[in-house]
Amino acid sequence: MAFRFDESQGPRRIGTNLAEINIIPLVDVVLVLLLIFMLTAPMMYRGIDVNLPKATSRPTAVEERLVLTVTKDQSLFLNDRRLPATGLEVALRQAFANRTDKTLYLKADAGLSYGAVVETMDRVRRAGIERLGMVTEPARER
């Protein structure tokens, strides 16, 4: 703080004090650090490097996806095999008896009524299917 002495008016300040804290440099530093950490954090996780052994045997069999298709006339198909309308629960129980993954994918025609699709979903749940996925077609961009 600088003072100028004037005998007639007493001591007087030459400059003014800044009573506010300037946080702009602090914000700049924080944003730069945030950017650095966001860019380097994904590179820091590498896991554990190991050399895996070679094996000549085949890998374990991957279960194929089961897709239940409901056509516009309410015909049922499990993958490519036609199912009778009354035997859906029995056929699904047999198909999922030895499977560990209890997921079924449902493809229903867009022209079907909502009630028909919900009824089919209810029959699938009664057959003991734990997870039911809906297959859709991606919308076209205009």
**Which overall shape is indicated by the principal axes computed on the Cα atoms?**
elongated
Largest sheet: 5 strands, mixed
Termini gap:
68 Å
- Which ranges are low-confidence, i.e. pLDDT below 50, for 5 or more consecutive residues? none
Task: Characterize the structure shown.
- The structure is a single chain.
- This protein has helices spanning 24-44, 88-95, 114-126, and strands at 3-6, 10-13, 66-70, 76-78, 81-83, 103-108, 131-134.
- The strands form two sheets. A five-stranded mixed beta sheet has the order 5-4-3-6-7, with helices on one face. It has a two-stranded antiparallel sheet with strand order 1-2.
- It has a domain at 66-134: 2-Layer Sandwich (Nucleotidyltransferase, domain 5), CATH 3.30.420.
- It is built from three helices and seven strands.
- It starts with a strand and ends in an 8-residue tail after the last strand.
- The protein has 142 residues and is of the alpha/beta class.
- The mean pLDDT is 78.
Furnish the topology, listing elements before pairings:
Elements: E1 3-6, E2 10-13, H1 24-44, E3 66-70, E4 76-78, E5 81-83, H2 88-95, E6 103-108, H3 114-126, E7 131-134
Parallel strand pairs: 3-6, 6-7
Antiparallel strand pairs: 1-2, 3-4, 4-5
Report a brief summary of the structure.
This protein has three helices and seven strands. By secondary structure, the protein is α/β, with parallel strands linked by helices. It has a domain at 66-134: Nucleotidyltransferase, domain 5 (2-Layer Sandwich).
